[in-house]
Amino acid sequence: MTVTGIITAIVIGAIIGALGRLVLPGKQPIGLLLTIGVGIVAALLGTALAQSVGVATTDGIDWIELVFQIGLAAIGVALVAGFRRRGTRTHH
């Protein structure tokens, strides 16, 4: 993977991760790096999902693929936030 490819993945991951966080209610206790990581994974999985159902090769913006990616990012952010909340509880 080239430097340009890595930078592109980070930028797209940040955008998809941020959009995934926006569709969730409330505040999620995860940082920027986790958001980007979740976004990158969601973008890759969303693209694979779109290709598997045959909607990844449309003209213009692939809206269905984008919905898959954002939905997966929202699920990923919710899972990570849930694990982080569970790990920060104090037991008395």
From TrEMBL:
It is a multi-pass membrane protein. Its main location: membrane. The chain crosses the membrane at residues 6-24, 31-51, 63-83. It is found in: Cell membrane. Keywords: Cell membrane, Membrane, Transmembrane, Transmembrane helix. It comes from Thermomonospora cellulosilytica. This is Putative membrane protein YeaQ/YmgE (Transglycosylase-associated protein family). InterPro entries: Transgly_assoc. One of its GO terms (cellular component) is plasma membrane. Belongs to the UPF0410 family.
